[in-house]
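Write out the 3D structure for:
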Amino acid sequence: MANVSFKAFARAPKRLLISSIIACGSALLTAHPAAAQNNGNPEGEWRYWGADMSSTRYSPLEQINADNFENLEVAWLWRGDNFSPAPDFIMRSTPIYADGIVYTVAGTRRTVAAIDPATGETLWTFREPYTERWELSPRKNYGRGVAYGELDGRGVIYLVTPGFFLHALDAKTGEPLEGFGGQIPVDGFPETGTVDMLATLGHPYDVFSGIDSERGSITTSSPPLFVDGVLVVGNSAHMGGTYSRVENVPGDVQAFDARTGEHLWTFHTIPREGEFGNDTWENDAWRWSGNVNAWPPLSADADLGIVYLPTDAPTNDYFGGFRPGDNLFGSSLVAVDLRTGERRWHFQMIHHDIWDWDNPVAPILVDVTVDGRAIPAVVQTTKQSFVYAFNRETGEPIWPIPETPVPVGDVPGEWYSPTQPIPSRPLGYELQGLSIDDLIDFTPELRQMAIEQVSDIKLGPIFTPWVNVGNEAQYRATAQCPSATGGTNIPGGTVMDPVTGIMYVASRKACTGGRLGAGAERDDGADRLNQPGVNVVDWMNAGGGGFAAMEGLPIFKPPYGRITAIDMNTGEHLWWIPNGDTPDRIRDHPLLEGIENLQNTGFQGNATALVTKSLLMFAEGRGGRSIWYAVDKVTGERLGAVEIPAPTSTAPMTYMHDGVQYIVLPIAGNGIPGSLVALRLEG
């Protein structure tokens, strides 16, 4: 394995050579060619959130390459601030491109817009009529895009909304699809083209106001997945980090006929009585526990007829004493049958999740060759910075994932799993757990300050449980590394070159001070928007206790964010580079005054990336520099950089239109609201 020091990239010139890597570079690109996959995406298009139904975020286009990358210029800027009651200063949508048109959503209304791919002109829009269900939704501006499908050669756009409706629209006109769904008894809804997804979820509800707050709530964020005439729809829940109630609605996954809107099946993410996995919910907790949502984008293998569901933790994210047991299918990857919704196989990454380490990104499908064996793989990267790799047909791990003893805690009333599954390969790619050796060490004085900072913090390996306020050992908090916002997360995620089997993982080094306070003291009352449910949890997140930073400097060593290249044919790390460059606030920090040749720390964020036939391209992500980078896929060598109007805010995409390759970046910041900017070569 070749290790790339972050010092080498502090101000890397355009043609910097890293001889130790280049010596074997060309072989890496051809050593393990992958078989062609049925990914549902014609060359030059980008029909899915992740480019294809395999969620690779890969394009074979190479009009934009190392020789001309720095000739990119802005082709158009599409602003999203007119699609909400107030300007929305984030853009979470990755647009798609299909049959000559770009599609996105924007704003808290989650308005659909069709956009001319060459000029950025808005061609048509669609906005769902007002309901109280929309008003009460906790994730209104979390829309990550739309889905596209073809029915008898006719393009259709599918939209899921905060109020939990599913819409089907003619891709050319934006008109509701005839014969899809039925009439919604609310003023303003069209006579056709809409499905009320609460009607098939199985909970009492009002069509205008939604589910009663005492029962819980549910919403959506990622687009549906279109596969062979079937729409599979995941969902989202409230932010669990401040959730104070025990009950919520389970995140059951549903499927609908793409032509008619007919409900086809429901997969119960919290198994009901008599279903597989129900016995992992002791205390009859399955009856009233919620969440276990499949909130990231989904992936599918059309040939196998399997959809892959990445799930999150059960209610409550940080305390589960009321739900003893492993809690299937929380924090799992579940393979279900496309036609029936029946479980084919599953793997639980975290038993009884009490760290909010839900699976945050779409699983990636890729064909690899391991020890001479061709394997159809599915790969899940995670917040805890592990890579879990399986045969996507059988669920068999590609490399062993042994159950490993982990620390247990002593929070009153909590139930702890004594083991967790930890992959033997690939190795973790970001800071996991915290020790004194991991603390900042730019100078001896800073190291001593850091040691003093953690003197009353419980340190330990990954899966060290949180402490409660008033614990006997008098710990201020537990160091959780990565935090729930560390490791890999959806703004950047992971991209895969399906030709080589090399995966590029964006990650963020982040820790939190984990501590629990009494729920009764922190519950904010019967606020329907923020706290659905009735019974208050015994313990809930009480904040970090001032841990993890020293006068604005992260307490741990850099790099603060990185991109890691991993060969999924061998499970080996090939190289890593920092996420961009050292931020000015770090470079100019008073505590670092006088330090010469400061190593490149990288930006503490999730790089937003895509990979093409010839390049890995990325930006630093939310709050980072307004720069779009290109690096060599084999070596990590920086090949170029161009300025963009604002930092990126989520994953980018690329397409070919009328012989011209465009790159579209969701951006926000520098006074620019959530918007899309398209880049193309000069001329």
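The longest helix spans residues 444-453.
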